[in-house]
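Model the whole thing, not chain by chain.
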Amino acid sequence: MLKLRINPDRMLAAFNELAQVGATSDGGVNRPTFSEAHLAARRWFREQIEKAGLEFRADGAGNHSATLALSGASRGASAVEEPAKTLLLGSHLDSVPNGGRFDGALGVIAAFEVLRTIKEAGIQLKVDLEAIDFTDEEGTLVGLLGSAALAGRLHSDILQNPRGGRGALLEGMRRAGLSDESMLSAMRPKESLAGYLELHIEQGKRLERAGLHVGVVSAIVGIWSYRLSFIGRADHAGTTTMGDRLDASLGASEFTLAARDIVVNDFRDCVVNIGNMEFSPGAFNIVPAQVDVSLEFRSADEEKFKRLDSLLLAHAQEAANRFNLALKVESLGKHSPALMDDHVRDAFAGACDDLGLNYISLPSGAGHDGQSFDGICPVGMIFVPSRDGASHSAREFTAWEDCVNGANVLLQTVLRLAT
Amino acid sequence: MLKLRINPDRMLAAFNELAQVGATSDGGVNRPTFSEAHLAARRWFREQIEKAGLEFRADGAGNHSATLALSGASRGASAVEEPAKTLLLGSHLDSVPNGGRFDGALGVIAAFEVLRTIKEAGIQLKVDLEAIDFTDEEGTLVGLLGSAALAGRLHSDILQNPRGGRGALLEGMRRAGLSDESMLSAMRPKESLAGYLELHIEQGKRLERAGLHVGVVSAIVGIWSYRLSFIGRADHAGTTTMGDRLDASLGASEFTLAARDIVVNDFRDCVVNIGNMEFSPGAFNIVPAQVDVSLEFRSADEEKFKRLDSLLLAHAQEAANRFNLALKVESLGKHSPALMDDHVRDAFAGACDDLGLNYISLPSGAGHDGQSFDGICPVGMIFVPSRDGASHSAREFTAWEDCVNGANVLLQTVLRLAT
């Protein structure tokens, strides 16, 4: 089994086919959750699963899986009749708007290839194996929606106030044939899960800069997000003196600059992003009455999170006060940092050693579905190098050799953990 | 004729009927150019014109008018057979998104009432009289579109790059049954125009604060507008270090604050507005690659315009440089300040005196259709008080007595100029 390797040509063919679904002219993909392109990618995945002779599974959260069940013989061989646990391998097929071909897709394709390789080799594992595509990892609607649902971490209040807006969620669920009720029904018992493993591109420059093959993830940063609304008053932009205005753009702009300064100066291992502003009414000749700011910040440390959170909100209030604006603060999710399982990290490291690949341990600056399983089952994750660190853009690229290396580490780690 | 007055009840009934077209729940109106509500307001105006026994006229720019022609008898009585000139009275029925009931509508309703009053009294003028509703005064698509077309100041390059976007203009013209060609055909010979008079709400607090009935406008400020695009790079907002980002939001925010400071500190009689920002791609977890800023600034002085213009653009470039962004500058129109005609101003002042109304001379901070006729024919404009200066909002309000006063000044000024 030590010599077993995935089939790189077969994996490449699948990867390239998938990259055509929702392809953009600049070489990326545009597959936001429940868009036509996203649903088409899921149909394509289902076809591949069935062609490969694996079992297809879909749940109420829209998660799609290929499953390789522990054979009847192996099951019967166990002394006590207890249900087999499932080792999940996965990632996601949705993308950010105009994203890249590798983010998520590589992890699903590699997991699928691992199942095909193990099935082909006729190896009996101690667990059921499942290659899963989780719904809305990118958070077009909710963020880690599918994995949270499966892990039992989704609640109806999250569905009522999703960061993409309730209307968009309802419309998306309708298109996918899902509902609030089905979402909440996707939970699986903790006892049924043997663990969750994921291969992903790094989306940063550390591996490339250090000339390394693999990153074994130590922890996934947490992500807190808010919608901050600076509220002033609509007035005629020609006849209202500058002093008489309550201009919401000023609070939003002041906060945007302050948020960056706070993180750059005092939270060097955290990041903050103002990804969007919505102006109302948004006309050339009207003083902006309201600006809604999309705020997100990340940390691998819970204590730092709390300090950064209170500093950012205090500065938002200061910026509002300075320009006589009101401030509305709406929390859209607080995902805690998640530590990866030591035993799984050791297995990844051992697999790298066996394969002659060099690696380092590093935290993940991006959120990933693994954090949904924090405290539920053992979680592990590896990265392969991203050229120039580019991600969430069509410039995203990972050398195919690195993709194959990552898939072989995933395969060998499964064998170490489950035989 | 000195005793002639408009019919306030008839005018109020018409004003209130019109306010129902595109009415919003908060008491304003939403009639952006060529929206369903805007086209409905124009249909309503046409019906009123025909019911009143006045002649209806529409041109290729979509301008709608009631006309009261010099009678055949008067025409024949002139020694030399030359075509009568037209004295235009007008304003506009379009509104900003979620605007007020008075802006534009009052001027059209008052002009219409003046024509009805003069027709009813059987008074023979030396000119044709026309109450006109100009297309897109507010600039949803172009800005002063209808008056510029009539004055011969519209060019095809303006139609190719309208500030509302070419797609929106094409769609709007389609809905209204208009085209680029028809727009350009709306020009009238300069020799055919006797002048242009407009009654409008002040949209500022000067008349209210001074306790005056009427403002006789001395000049209309010019408006220059730009789309400034700050261009960075889309990157993953979790994995890209703060130092590695090219974040377009920072340039846009820095510029927004700087623009206000420049005007507040050094251009106290000018105003500047950042009415909108568009973020691309606009997701929580992507560093903004591009932010398009809608910039508009106003001055009654051409020299100040030039100085302010170069300062603002220099600061935009500085803000871009500071954050390693590119800057794209797109000029969307330079409307020069327009001086009002002295003879018309005297006639307004005389009419106020006759009516026992107190008045001051003041510049208009808002742009108006009158500036399209600068250098083409004599132009004059009066204001009536706006409560709390509110405008471009549902809070817009002018006491009915003030509206009636304004209409009577308009009537008496027409009689002074054209009998």
